[in-house]
Amino acid sequence: MFDVEGIQDWQGQEVLDRDGERIGKLDTVFTDSEDGAASLVTVKSGLVSKHVALVPLAGASFGRSHVRVPYTKDQVDSAPSVGADGRITRKDEVLVARHFGVQPPERDAEDDDVRYEPAGAAEARRAEAARAEAAKLEAKAAALRSEAKEVER
Hints:
Blueprint: E1 14-16, E2 22-32, E3 38-45, E4 51-56, E5 61-62, E6 66-68, H1 73-77, E7 88-89, H2 90-100, E8 114-118, H3 119-152
């Protein structure tokens, strides 16, 4: 959905509704595990008992110190919460999409795997994969250098 550089670092930014009214703070950015795009966020609101709502980023806009979502404060306040373990499944995705009146991504009907992960986790996974690939390339280069030395002898 969104490819905003460093979006995972926006944790704690103000979240505003479509009319500019403060809803709460951006808590976690979730990226789609298939394409890595930021698609959902959790928004913490409330002074005493914190409500953590799962909100789609479809139609959102970004300012220097806030994220504005195209929904009302009441819609966000009554939105479903993330599961107790912080996992977002296909069922959660469809429930949230229906609540906000947006179309969920096309997926296999029986696919109830976890489809989203916190943005920081996705970046850490990609960084580890890049490090592993770099190590493989370095090993191949070392082998080629060794072969070249053997040929020179």
